[in-house]
Design goal:
There is one protein chain. It contains 15 helices and 13 strands. It is an alpha/beta fold and 378 residues long. Strands 2-8-7-6-5-3-4 form a seven-stranded mixed sheet, with helices on both faces. A four-stranded antiparallel sheet has the order 9-10-13-12, with helices on one face. The protein has a two-stranded parallel sheet with strand order 1-11.
Length: 378
């Protein structure tokens, strides 16, 4: 089979990222299959007894992961799903049956609306409404005064496609109270809930306690291979397990994903506050670097970041920015930016993640990397 130009470019990017000696974060895609398998085999024994039998349809290590996640979130029970898309569809479908309403209120930039090909409507028969279209979480007034009835309010924390933005704790409490005043249940899309504590000023159990159910991912922030958990009341989780089977999510064996998730909880979760703190340093230095550069303008959003991830916007096309980014990686071993996405005509943005590899970046390092990146723009 012939290799397409897009595949060649992808391989070029992956090779450049893998060979980089300095980067803000190392994504799982930066490693080969052999590297990931070797690392999992070397480390998994620190979080689970590998002399035991493999899981079968959700027992063993998968059940252990469910118990641990439920405890971390302060929830009664949890069920492991192969994908977050499936976990949330099941959660919202279960709540629709319990509330008697097929209507889900959520943000138009939320994951089900942007990244799931209309699955809530086409697969689960749900209808969505939007309390706001502003690029931020909805306010209590918008939820309270929305003119249509809804049975479930889904809140994505943080709202990724708006720039990984979060409300304040007081705003979040008010939004939840507004939903309760309307007799609606609250579900948290917490794919990245793990890193929300520093901004909200609360621990995971207190955040999760605001909601009736919550979904969390294991690969977005914890470097797991895949998988997600839906947590909530035991009766809801029991029903969710039935729908998981019906949706095709009752997988025979999932121990590699479960082991990598346990490693993420053990290793990455305690580090996330340090990533969030350093992301503020990196974002400020990026803004300073672009101000000192020859680019017409640049925007770091939000500034300061709410989590360890944020956006950078520049007035160039994606092809130009992608080429400058990969050339910097290839020529200097420094990866500052990865893929760029198209915004309005002539404007692009990228998502920046600060993780373990980025903790040793000083403000001077960031400004120097910005200068090197800008010098490669044509």
């Amino acid at each position: 089979m012939a290799v397409t130009d897009e595949q060649k470019q992808r391989n070029r990017r992956l090779t450049a990222w893998q060979r980089s000696t300095k980067r803000l974060a190392r994504a799982s895609a930066d490693r080969t299959m052999g590297e990931r398998l070797a690392a999992l085999a070397a480390d998994a024994g620190t979080v689970h007894d590998l002399t035991g039998w493999t899981d079968v349809y959700g027992d063993g290590v998968v059940a252990e992961l469910e118990r641990r996640t439920a405890d971390l979130l302060g929830m009664e029970a949890a069920a492991f799903f192969p994908t977050g898309t499936m976990a949330q569809q099941v959660a919202l479908r279960c709540w629709a049956g319990r509330t008697g309403s097929q209507v889900v209120a959520l943000h138009p930039l939320s994951h089900p609306e942007v990244h799931e090909r209309g699955a809530l409507a086409s697969v689960s028969g749900l209808r969505t409404v939007h309390p706001t279209s502003e690029p931020r979480p909805p306010t209590a007034g918008e939820v309270r005064d929305f003119p249509e009835p809804f049975g479930t309010l889904m809140l994505e924390l943080p709202l990724r496609d708006a720039g990984f933005v979060l409300p304040s704790w007081e705003e979040l409490e008010a939004v939840v109270a507004a939903a309760r005043d309307r007799d609606a249940v609250v579900h948290l899309d917490g794919a990245r809930l793990w890193e929300c504590g520093p901004h909200l000023g609360r621990g995971l159990p207190e955040i999760a306690a605001l909601a009736d159910s919550v979904y969390v991912s294991f690969y977005k922030s914890l470097d797991g291979l895949s998988g997600a958990v839906l947590a909530g009341p035991e009766s809801l989780v029991d029903e969710a397990r039935t729908w998981r089977h019906r949706y095709g999510g009752q997988v025979f064996q999932q121990y590699p994903a479960a082991l990598s998730a346990l490693l993420g909880l053990e290793r990455e979760l305690p580090r996330l506050p340090s990533y969030v703190a350093h992301a503020k340093v990196v974002a400020g230095a990026l803004a300073e670097g672009f101000t000192e550069s020859a680019v017409p303008w640049a925007r770091v959003h939000p500034e300061p970041p709410h989590t360890h991830q944020f956006q950078v916007w520049l007035p160039y096309g994606t092809d130009v920015l992608d080429e400058a980014s990969v050339r910097q990686s290839e020529e200097t071993g420094v990866t500052l930016f990865r893929r760029w996405l198209a915004g309005p005509p002539g404007i692009s943005f990228t998502e920046v993640t600060v993780a373990a590899d980025g903790l040793d970046w000083t403000e001077r390092d960031v400004r120097a990397a910005v200068a090197g990146f800008v010098s490669r723009l044509v």
